[in-house]
Design goal:
Length: 239
């Protein structure tokens, strides 16, 4: 059936295009009111404490209470058994997530590229107007650390465009066999050490993004499977 063969080919191309664009920032974003708020950083009385994960004990040294609402523009999950983390004995760092808030919610974010390196968030655009309207002081890359399995599972569900609320401690942490990682305590610094290290006490996705590319990816996959089922379900006819 030639029509079905064309259907399979179109579905396959449709799937490839959708997959390629699946992490694009959604065009229509319904911002929550809290997105305009600056992160809340307050004094803490929490004393240093230990956390154990993957059979490694870490010393957590809180510096401030921290509460941030932001929209995810980039992220990078960390495999705690990857070479760099294994060598540093750093299994606690579960995710780097780059978020924006405040006036950036009214910027033309679709003209700006965001991507995470191993421990950095990178920003680039050729659009001068988009860059002029963007505030780098309302963007932060957050090293999220936790020894709570429920929180570690929850962060696996994030997507570009999701709006999240994270509460916990800005903190440094260290282990006996590894080094020590500090934290930024201001949103205006840049370069090495400018990222926030956040021991997570609570993680919430307050608004899921509606990604039509992801919806399209699922639809095209189902269409492709249906077309293949028809193709292979036809009786064999030798030529």
């Amino acid at each position: 059936m030639r029509i079905n063969n064309i259907f399979v080919a179109v579905s396959f191309v449709w799937l490839l295009v959708s997959f390629w664009n699946r992490n694009d920032l959604p065009r229509n974003i319904d911002y929550v009111p809290e997105i305009t708020n600056e992160p809340a950083q307050t004094e803490t009385r929490q004393r240093p404490f230990t956390a154990v994960f993957n059979e490694v004990e870490y010393l957590i040294e809180p510096e401030y209470e921290y509460d941030i609402v932001g929209m995810i523009v980039s992220y990078r999950h960390h495999d705690n058994n990857s070479r760099m983390h294994r060598l540093a004995d750093d299994h606690l760092n579960m995710l780097d997530v780059c978020v924006v808030w405040g006036d950036n919610s009214t910027s033309d974010l679709h003209q700006i590229d965001f991507w995470n390196g191993i421990f950095t968030c990178n920003v680039f655009t050729r659009d001068q107007q988009a860059w002029d309207s963007f505030d780098m002081n309302q963007l932060s890359n957050n090293h999220l650390i936790s020894d709570d399995d429920n929180i570690r599972d929850r962060v696996k569900d994030i997507q570009i465009g999701d709006q999240i609320r994270v509460r916990g401690y800005l903190a440094s942490y260290s282990s006996a066999r590894g080094g020590k990682r500090g934290t930024s305590t201001t949103r205006t610094d840049t370069g090495d050490g400018a990222c926030e290290t956040l021991y997570v006490k609570r993680f919430d996705i307050v608004q899921h993004a509606t990604s039509y590319w992801r919806i399209s990816m699922v639809a095209s996959l189902l269409a492709l499977l249906a077309g293949l089922a028809v193709h292979f379900g036809r009786p064999y006819r030798p030529y």
